Amino acid sequence: MTTKSSPHDSKVIRIGTRGSRLALAQSGQIVDQLVALFPEYSFELVVISTTGDRIVDRPLSEVGGKGLFVKELELAMLDGRIDAAVHSMKDVPVTMPLVAQTNLIIAAVTRREDVRDALLVRTAAGLAVDSETPLEHLPVRAKVGTTSPRRALLLHDRRPDLEIFPLRGNIDSRIDKLRRGDFDAIVLAMAGLNRLRPDLSGILPIPLDEDGFVPSAGQGALALECRRDDERVRNVLLALNDRAAEIEVRTEREVVRLLEGDCHSPIGVLARVDDLSQPSPQLHLRLATGETRVTRSEARVPVDAWEQAAEHAVREIAASDHS
């Protein structure tokens, strides 16, 4: 919905969102939580069309990267059309943002959904796919749909024979392509499936283990962004910040920064924080990256040493590359 409220109405907070079903579902959940916490405010969703949503026939890496999913939302914040925006964290660029970040800030990182990827197969295809080792049970030279360099690298690491083909579009259209037989399998994020709950009739989703099939930085988390100088909105959004998710995502994005990664980079990185209520919580970091083969590294440190964990994991990767 669009808002007709005055931009100077201090009791209205306008939250920008992409127009896809998943984006609207995610943003709607955020608004519901904020309404419950701040009944004194009126929260309104404003749909912003993004370049990333409009370009569906080419890989994003060819036309500007995942930043195309947030560019127009950030511009709308800076010119005052909206007060905040909800992004899938993995769509927020770590390096080379498309909009100047001087007066923008991620005010909150939400509690993470399931971070894993999922392999989706057609039950009608008669594939004997085992839930424990689903990739190993795909047919020889099976056609798998994904446009993610990370997913392609990890798929080929486990099954060099698999044929990887581009897969763009929203979740529903991707599932439709699988259902009509364009692919033997596709890979999607569990978080999107859980939040959107699409029609999976005739489709079997099988989660892939996060240890071996390491997810993308920020996968499963939402980023709540606003103008840096808007203290009112910053304080409201902060109420939805999940401290463990914030630490995990910050660590993962630091790894990507140290690797100078972008949308072309096949980087899987996952940080896991122990219970923060414990006396000495630990952070476990896993990294998987490479060009033609996967190199892996790990680090386990106290939570406060998250930067050292990122540096250690990247150093191990560099050492492996030169060995």
What structural class should be given to the helix and strand makeup?
A: alpha/beta
Estimated radius of gyration: 20 Å
Which regions are unreliable across 5 or more consecutive residues at pLDDT < 50? Answer: 1-7
Number of domains as seen in the coordinates: 3
* Main beta-sheet strand count, sense and barrel state: 5 strands, mixed
- The beta-strand count equals 13
- The CATH class of the largest domain turns out to be Alpha Beta
Separate helix tally: 9
CATH superfamily of the largest domain: Periplasmic binding protein-like II
Helix content: 25-40%
CATH architecture term of the largest domain: 3-Layer(aba) Sandwich
Instruction: State the distance separating the first and last CA atoms.
Output: 56 Å
Overall geometry comes to globular
User: How is the CATH topology of the largest domain named?
Assistant: D-Maltodextrin-Binding Protein, domain 2
Instruction: List the strand order in the largest sheet.
Output: 2-1-3-10-4
Task: Give me some keywords for this one.
3 domains, five-stranded mixed β-sheet, D-Maltodextrin-Binding Protein, domain 2, 23% strand, Double Stranded RNA Binding Domain
Notes on the protein architecture:
This protein is an alpha/beta fold and 323 residues long. The protein folds into three domains: 12-111 and 221-241, Periplasmic binding protein-like II (D-Maltodextrin-Binding Protein, domain 2); 117-207, D-Maltodextrin-Binding Protein, domain 2, CATH 3.40.190.10; 251-322, Porphobilinogen deaminase, C-terminal domain (Double Stranded RNA Binding Domain, 2-Layer Sandwich). Helix content is 30%, strand content 23%. It is built from nine helices and 13 strands. The strands form three sheets. A five-stranded mixed sheet has the order 2-1-3-10-4, sandwiched between helices. Strands 7-6-8-5-9 form a five-stranded mixed sheet. Strand 11 and strand 12 form a beta hairpin. Helix 8 (243-258) packs parallel to helix 9.
